[in-house]
Specification:
alpha/beta, seven-stranded mixed sheet, four-stranded antiparallel sheet, 16 helices, 13 strands, 15% strand, binds pyridoxal-5'-phosphate
């Protein structure tokens, strides 16, 4: 009898461990800390949206939907983009419903990027980008956002573009810094890419969280940029339902066709009743139109409380994240500080270094303020005791 061979496991992602969000959430639970780490609301979504899901299930919308998504939802998304950003995407062949933005970004990378290509990422960035690029057999070329302001440095981005550059991933409003790209930033990117073959994956999941009267500068507003871009967004962030994992991609037909080739063998289709529910719910613009004011009030409440501590506040132009410099509060590094804060003070935060591949530590941590006022008050009282 021959000896059975044990297959040797060779990781596709040897450098990847458990995400910082999972680690900090588990630590927060263990120490009964207020969890301002992971980015999700602790309040309920609109009950009317839940009613729409129930209605859709009771109406029998429980089998596979079309691969690209329920037509009514794709039409609602196209209408919203046109009314807000002035670009018309065809619901039939330019909008695809996805299982959240994370799946959309992986699918976009797998659809566009070939082994040996380079993809530019602007650090710090959402932690899925880099492993997605590795899975595609490509190389992530990391360009830092300017430390302190976290604004894009177009000279550095230009210097990173090579004949191997297939794509750049951008994110505005930006997680973790809360920076919002200006019209001038978008025009600079458009001009920079004009003579190149570089595609753009534009992560716009926080598109409805822009404060102080500013406007979200969606790629959809910039025709020549939009022609080379897959725009990714997430219903989870907009409607306080991060656990539903549903989002969309808007892109020109040729890009969408390639995207769907991967999508159909990745998730194939996305939760039918939730798609019907969102389609019905989106006929009212108020929920997303009111979101800037809703989150701006929470941002201001949280900033006012933090101003009474030794944390140094960074600007927050958008998203539901507030970053703070810890140098006057502690000598610990970011990760040690976040662990200590969770364990000893009872507030969980995210070290910004976790969103750099090389763990660059600039003494900045990120708090999520998508929480009930009472949760924020409890956290602030604890932070003010420092
Ligand atoms: C910048 C960014 N992109 C994408 C996502 C993921 O969105 P989804 O939950 O729809 O996958 C997040 C969630 O935190 C995010 O912050």
């Amino acid at each position: 009898m021959s000896t059975p061979i044990t297959a040797t496991l060779q990781s596709r992602l040897p450098a990847v461990g458990t995400t910082i969000f999972t680690v900090m959430s588990a630590l927060a639970t263990q120490h009964q800390a207020v969890n301002l780490g992971q980015g999700f609301p602790d309040f309920a979504c609109d009950p009317a949206l839940v009613d729409e899901v129930t209605r859709a299930m009771q109406a029998g919308h429980n089998q596979y939907p079309p691969m690209a998504g329920v037509a009514a939802l794709r039409e609602a998304v196209a209408a919203k983009i046109e009314s807000l950003y002035g670009r018309s995407y065809h619901a039939l062949d330019e909008i695809t419903i996805t299982a959240g933005a994370t799946q959309a970004i992986l699918t976009a990378v797998m659809a566009l990027v070939h082994p040996g290509d380079e993809v530019i990422v602007l650090e710090p960035c959402y932690d899925s980008y880099q492993p997605n690029i590795v899975l595609a057999g490509a190389v992530a070329v990391r360009v830092p956002l300017t430390p302190g302001s976290f604004r894009p440095d177009f000279a550095k981005i230009a210097a990173a573009i090579s004949p191997k550059t297939r794509a750049i991933i951008i994110n505005t409003p930006h997680n973790p810094s809360g920076t919002v790209w200006s019209q001038a930033d978008m025009l600079a990117l458009q001009d920079l890419l004009e003579p190149t073959n570089v595609f753009v994956i534009s992560d716009e999941v926080y598109e409805h969280m822009v404060f102080d009267g500013a406007q979200h500068q969606s790629v959809a507003r910039f025709p020549s940029l939009a022609a080379r871009t897959l725009i990714v967004s997430s219903f989870g962030k907009t409607y306080h339902v991060t656990g539903w994992k549903i989002g969309f991609v808007a892109a020109p037909a040729a890009l969408t066709a390639e995207f769907r080739k991967v999508h159909q063998f990745n998730v194939f289709t996305v939760n039918t009743p939730v798609q019907h529910a969102l389609a019905a719910y989106m006929s009212d613009a108020k929920p997303y139109a009111n979101l800037p004011a809703f989150y701006q009030r929470k941002r201001d409440l949280f900033r006012l409380g933090l101003a009474q501590t030794a944390f140094k506040l960074l600007p927050c132009e958008g998203t539901f994240f507030q970053c703070a410099d810890i140098s006057e509060v502690s000598d610990l590094n970011e990760t040690e500080f976040c662990e200590w804060l969770t364990r000893e003070i009872g507030v969980a935060a995210i070290p910004m270094s976790a969103l750099y591949v090389d763990g660059f530590d600039q003494r900045v941590v990120r708090f999520c303020f998508a929480k009930e006022d009472s949760t924020l008050q409890t956290a602030l009282a604890r932070l003010q005791s420092l």
